[in-house]
Every structure is written in C-alpha cells, then in structure tokens.
Amino acid sequence: MSREHEIVEWPVELDGVTETVVATYGPNERWNFAVLGVHAGDPATARTWGATRTRRNFQRRGEGVVQFINDPVVFVECALSILERDHPTHPAAAAWARVAVEPVENGTAGDTEWIDWELVPIESAIEFETVQTTNRGYGAVIEATVAASRLGVPAYDTDELRDRLAFFEGVVETCGGEREREAMARLDELIE
C-alpha cells in the first residue's frame, strides 16, 4: 500500500472479526453505508463479495470511513437496504476511522467474486464513550442480519437460513430490548 497518508491508530482495539458500518463515497456524490467485517491484523483486512457499491467505491476512491456503531436498527438498515447520506459519519457512530484501502487478493466462491482489502487508518476519532453491556438480543440481530444477507445466494440453503432467522427472532424476543425488537421487525420488512 502506498504510504502517502500518515497512519494513525484505530480508535478501538480490533480483535477477531469486528462487525462495522462503512461509508464509501459514490459517483452520485453521496455516502453509501453498508456493513463490513473487519479482520484484526497488521494491517487489518476486509472482504467484499460481489459487485457491491462498497467494492466499486473502494476501487474508485481508494478509501472509506469505518464506523463502530452499537445501534442494531442502524446496523440492519446498513446491511439490508440502500442507505445514503450527505455526510460520511453516521450520528450513531461511537467511533470511526477513515481508511485507505488497497486490494491484496481476489478470487471466486461459486459464482461470486470476492476481493480482500488492506485497511489502513489515516484519520480517526472517538465521538462518545459508553459502558458496553452484553445483550444476547443484540448479538442475535447481528447474526440474523448475516443470515438474511445470504437469502437468495445459491451457495446457501434457503430453508436452513429461514430456520436460523426464526431461532434468532426467538432470542431477540426473549433477551432483546426495544431497539433489538425494532431491528428484527425492520429486518423482517426488508427481507419480505
């Protein structure tokens, strides 16, 4: 990766795969918001699948804004709908990092093309700090979002995915709070 920018630290500690929201600047001069799993490492990496707006905007601009958001409704909206804004950071972002991206590997899985990207933070900020609690409902929303995003993909069994969604909906109903229930309701609307 070219080092034309000063490298800064990530605003949070990355461990395993951190589910984030990424904003990329599109040709319509708006910021497109989508989810992106960031793999810890030096450098951190992420994989895009298919000809998504994120992939095309990464290729076009060579950067994006990775955001750490704990609101399950915002996460579902970014994962399963087209969300565009005039500003690159979402008001729900607790922290963010503007990253320079560079493709490092590519391939196919079934009929779907993927690209692995190096993500190097070049600017970052912590917007607000919260005391994080463990809410099984929130985790279930994230897992349900992953399952929902695979519906209609030939490599995945639709009945199995629907069973997983029903299971996660039960977890949200039992363990989730108001925002988690709202997120699952929105997820159901978006996949119908």
Topology:
Blueprint: E1 17-25, E2 31-39, E3 44-49, H1 53-61, E4 63-69, H2 72-80, E5 83-85, E6 93-109, E7 112-126, H3 136-149, H4 158-175, H5 178-191
Antiparallel strand pairs: 1-2, 1-4, 2-3, 2-5, 3-7, 4-6, 6-7
Largest sheet: 6 strands, antiparallel, barrel
Give the number of helices.
5
Gyration radius, to the nearest Å?
17 Å
How confident is the prediction overall: mean pLDDT? 94
Low-confidence stretches: none
CATH topology of the largest domain: Pnp Oxidase, Chain A
Cα shape: globular
CATH class categorisation of the largest domain: Mainly Beta
Distance between the termini: 41 Å
In CATH, what is the homologous superfamily of the largest domain?
A: Electron Transport, Fmn-binding Protein, Chain A
N-to-C series of helices and strands: EEEHEHEEEHHH
Instruction: Return the domain count.
Output: 2
Q: Structural class, judged by helices and strands?
A: alpha+beta
Q: Report the strand count.
A: 7
Strand order of the largest sheet: 1-2-3-7-6-4
The CATH architecture category of the largest domain equals Roll
Query: Strand percentage, roughly?
Result: 25-35%
Work out the helicity level: 25-40%
Structure description:
With 192 residues, the chain is of the alpha+beta class. The protein folds into 2 domains: 17-126, Electron Transport, Fmn-binding Protein, Chain A (Pnp Oxidase, Chain A), CATH 2.30.110.10; 136-191, Hypothetical membrane protein ta0354_69_121 (Methane Monooxygenase Hydroxylase, Chain G, domain 1, Up-down Bundle), CATH 1.20.58. Helix content is 33%, strand content 34%. The protein has 5 helices and 7 strands; from the N terminus they run E-E-E-H-E-H-E-E-E-H-H-H. It has helices spanning 53-61, 72-80, 136-149, 158-175, 178-191, and strands spanning 17-25, 31-39, 44-49, 63-69, 83-85, 93-109, 112-126. The protein has a 6-stranded antiparallel β-barrel. A hairpin with a 5-residue loop joins strand 1 (17-25) and strand 2. Helix 2 (72-80) runs parallel beside helix 5 (178-191), helix 3 (136-149) runs antiparallel to helix 4 (158-175) and helix 3 (136-149) runs parallel beside helix 5 (178-191). The model has no long low-confidence stretch (mean pLDDT 94).
